[in-house]
UniProtKB/TrEMBL annotation:
Binding site for Zn(2+): 7, 20, 178, 182
Highest taxon, organism lineage: Bacteria
UniProt-listed InterPro entries: Adenine_glyco, DNA-3mA_glycosylase, DNA_glycosylase, Tag
Protein name (Swiss-Prot/TrEMBL): DNA-3-methyladenine glycosylase I
Length: 186
């Protein structure tokens, strides 16, 4: 049986391979899923993605299945409960930013009809296929992620630097950075 060629970053664990094969780079237009990745990416800032993937189900449970309506209304008591939850990243600023970002996410929905319409407008509603030959060809940021980051920050979002935004774009399929030899391209 021939083995699949994958992007090199996902080879260290079955969880990474599954995420790569089934999610990463697949276009997401659903607001709930877009928020899930936004929350996870903001917690990932400064950490490895595998750390977040390993805790993803803990995050799902702790953050009410990524229900941004609920998260936007978290009480101080709930925030303190999250800060004691060893199953997630207990960074105080990131926990508070999850609430702030959920509130701003809803404001964008109110302004644009959905977060999906807002975020995908940056790519005219279509994924950008960068067609990288190797992992070295995959950038950490782009002028587009710089622009989205700047706009999100202007709207009050936290932990949305250009690197976090670009990772979000990759995760949600706004950009396709699967390397040329990756089986997902065949």
């Amino acid at each position: 049986m021939k083995t699949k060629t994958r992007c090199g970053w996902c080879l260290s664990s079955d969880l990474y391979r599954k995420y790569h094969d089934e999610e990463w780079g697949t276009a997401v237009y659903d607001d709930t899923t877009l928020f899930e990745f936004l929350l996870l990416e903001t917690f990932q800032a400064g950490l490895s993605w595998i750390t977040i993937l390993n805790k993803r189900e803990n995050f799902r449970k702790a953050f009410d299945n990524f229900d941004y309506q609920k998260i936007a209304n978290y009480s101080e008591e709930k925030i303190q409960e999250l800060l004691l939850d060893a199953g997630i990243i207990r960074n105080k600023l990131k926990v508070y930013s999850a609430v702030t970002n959920a509130q701003n996410f809803i404001k964008i929905q109110e302004e644009f009809g959905s977060f999906s319409k807002y975020i995908w407008a940056f790519t005219n509603g279509r994924p950008i296929d960068n067609k990288p030959k190797t992992l070295k060809d995959v950038p950490a940021t782009t002028p587009l992620s710089d622009a989205i980051s700047k706009d999100l920050k202007k709207r009050g979002f936290k932990f949305v630097g250009s690197t976090v935004v670009y990772a979000h774009m990759q995760a949600t399929g706004m950009v396709n950075d699967h390397i040329a030899e990756c089986w997902t391209r065949t």
